[in-house]
């Protein structure tokens, strides 16, 4: 089926108390693996690319690859720009066929974040493409996105941000961080409950890789509707390829170790879909 937006799938998740798993993909094998996992689990799916991943290939290559794979999928697939860092990148992603956009102005003061995000919403509105914003800082490092410390989302600021920007969903700062956790994160799950009751748009959890399943599920029960997964997938793919090549030092066929990495990513994606509670939800919305 053709690429879909994230509007219906995230609103259905909000209504029915689960989250849609959103997976960052780096290459063709990861795209194939994640779509296959969602198909077997009958789950709605969001595939994502970050600015550095796009610079490695291009928005055109990723959009074409995802669109080709999604045509054969029996579940809805959205292609989402993760942590968009410029309005030009938003324009490029829209032109290439991305069906969902995130613009990240969380490093700006509130007024600048609102203006920066509102411009992205205006760019996407004519095409009917939803925009995810971010308020409060998700710490750590994801590709070129680096944030020192963690800033919790202020509920009053969130109400103003949502109203003045017109975003369709909001990534919130509740104590998670991108990348690999060196120390145990200090989460504020009660804040998710407050934000859920304060806002009318779906909430997004970044930095879910490395969190215990029960922690993720508690966040979902409190109101998280989209869970981003990136680092865990990279680890699974890279570790499996490394182990394959260590065992077969004579292998020179990228298809062989690529297939091994693809299978590892598929297995992990199925596990994450189950944790998010979106198995069997592909037809909702």
What does this structure look like?
There is one protein chain. The protein has a single domain, classed as TIM Barrel, CATH 3.20.20.70. Strands 1-2-3-4-5-8-10-11 form an 8-stranded parallel barrel, surrounded by 10 helices. The chain has a 3-stranded mixed sheet with strand order 7-6-9, with no helix packed on it. 49% of the residues lie in helices and 17% in strands. By secondary structure, it is an alpha/beta fold.
Instruction: Write down the domain tally.
Output: 1
Q: Describe the biggest sheet?
A: 8 strands, parallel, barrel
- For CATH, the homologous superfamily is named as Aldolase class I
Helical content, roughly? 40-55%
End-to-end Cα distance, whole Å, is 15 Å
CATH architecture: Alpha-Beta Barrel
Strand content: 15-25%
Total helix count? 11
Structure at a glance:
The protein is an alpha/beta fold and 285 residues long. Helices cover 49% and strands 17% of the residues. An eight-stranded parallel β-barrel has the order 1-2-3-4-5-8-10-11, surrounded by ten helices.
Outline the secondary-structure elements.
Elements: H1 7-16, E1 20-24, H2 28-41, E2 45-49, H3 51-56, H4 59-71, E3 77-84, H5 87-96, E4 100-103, H6 110-125, E5 131-135, E6 139-142, E7 145-147, H7 155-165, E8 169-172, E9 177-178, H8 189-198, E10 203-205, H9 213-222, E11 224-229, H10 231-247, H11 254-276
Parallel strand pairs: 1-2, 1-11, 2-3, 3-4, 4-5, 5-8, 6-9, 8-10, 10-11
Antiparallel strand pairs: 6-7
Helix pairs in contact: 2-4, 2-11, 5-6, 6-7, 7-8, 10-11
